[in-house]
Amino acid sequence: MYSTAVLGRNREHDPVREAKKSFQVDSLNEVKIASTYKGQPSITYSDEETMHLADRLRFALVVKFSHEPPNLNFLRQRINKLGLRGFVTIGPLNFKHVLIMVSNEDDFSGLWLRGELSFDGFPMRIFRWTPDFDPQIESPIAPV
């Protein structure tokens, strides 16, 4: 029934999908106080906090385009045709990089092992996302 679908009843509970939509802070004690670093606003996190936050991105990949990237809707359509089994979220990082987050390890491994893809003349290289991602440096981490 339409009202059931709209109200969200009888839908499967997917904690991964819900976590992606949530901006809720676990506790007000976890809200960080802003400071400055080299004259710029900043928030400092411990290594443990960084790893905890990075855990949500454990199945994230960075796609680097040799030239201008395609339209994100075009990229979503092409990625969806790869036969991935779980949810996929795609978003821009900067001019040449796109972040792809998948919801399971099989999809993550399958994409990462490809190393390179090309859709309609848009060549791209696939790297594993890490907390210290730097768009100026290609990751030396390779699938084994």
TrEMBL record:
Matching InterPro entries: At4g02000-like, DUF4283
Annotated ranges, domain DUF4283: 54-136
Name of this protein: DUF4283 domain-containing protein
